[in-house]
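To close the section, here is one more complete example, presented without commentary so you can practise reading it yourself. The ligand is pyridoxal-5'-phosphate.
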Amino acid sequence: MSRIVYVNGDYLPEEDAKISVFDRGFLFADGVYEVTSVLGGKLIDFEGHAKRLERSLSELDMSAPVTMDALLEIHRELVARNEVHEGLVYLQVTRGAADRDFAYPAEPKPSLVLFTQTKTLADTPVAKTGIKVISIEDQRWGRRDIKTVQLLYPSMGKMMAKAAGVDDAWMVEDGSVTEGTSNNAYIVTKAGTIVTRHLGNEILHGITRAAVLRFAREAQMTVEERSFTIEEAKDAAEAFITSASTFVMPVVELDGAQIGDGTPGPVATRLREIYLEESLKKAV
Ligand code: PLP
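Output:
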């Protein structure tokens, strides 16, 4: 069965799903996206992703091609048509096709594309062993709070990690960790405090981050939203990342140095359990 992809109002077999070469997403990376996970055939935190999408669009003076209610229906229809039990729904809105010009077109016709990816997310073996990361310089543009499709530097970061024989990279700017190439970064101090960078234009405001910090505070864990360095991270009791596709994923090695005892720590392990349990309750 060919995968069914949504393109501007139509549900099409993937080989027939096409976008113009003049699409500004293709020519200028003039577009935004969201990735929502699917567990048990249901969407995790759709509302959070829809709200962030609205914000990304508004920061770029782009209008939403359909209402958020319609978007939920498209997500559900795609999950059903592709029989996705566990995996991801990728959504992309671009400013659409227009004759090539740096200035935005006067009357843009935004493009909307969604597709699914079936993937094991919850019971992935790597959650039991943790991932290894290296640090790299953060060379992205200055509006990382907008979830744009401009992902070349994160791709380069993943390739640097691959070349170093590890799983991912944490990016560093002015001596502090910003975030992972496609995830938010955390450490747990020896005193048990969860530390993650404060919100601002320097990082993406992760939907998983917001949920995990809420669950951590509800569980009486101490959270500090502030900058931290690679040295502090190497000396931490634990480290982990969060994203819609990895949930809470332990980090056991940073720049070749073992973190804690080199195995997933109790805080990351517990937060992963709480996150999965609580988000499943509210899945739509
Ligand atoms: N930071 C970056 C740079 C990302 O690309 C992502 C996800 O793609 C995240 C953080 C995590 O965000 P979320 O939890 O909303 O998936």
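Once you have examined the tokens, check your reading against these statements. The longest helix spans residues 266-282. The two ends are 25 Å apart (CA to CA).
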